[in-house]
From TrEMBL:
This is Uncharacterized protein. The keyword Chloroplast does not apply. The keyword Membrane applies. Keywords: Membrane, Transmembrane, Transmembrane helix. It comes from Gilliamella apis. It comes from the Bacteria.
């Protein structure tokens, strides 16, 4: 994972640096900022957590789409049958 990906994922999850430090990085805010700037290596555990969060988000979006499509189809059938 690159520093740019780390920052993009943090923003995608609507996390402030303070949140990322508390729940993911277990480091100082400055250390996290160094990782996002590319000055420090991103630890493997942080990479694993961020990738897991990304996978969970993808799964949730997939199920949300399925539910949404199902509701749309049911509404369309109901509307057509009148």
């Amino acid at each position: 994972m690159t520093n740019i990906e780390l920052k993009a994922l943090r923003r995608l999850f609507f996390l402030y640096v303070a949140d990322a430090v508390t729940y993911i990085g277990k480091c100082s805010k400055r250390a996290w900022q160094y990782r996002e700037s590319g000055s420090r290596k991103i630890p493997d555990d942080v990479i694993n957590i961020m990738n897991k969060l990304k996978e969970e988000r993808t799964e949730l979006l997939y199920y949300y789409r399925l539910i949404t499509y199902s509701v749309i189809i049911k509404l369309a059938i109901w509307f057509i049958q009148g």
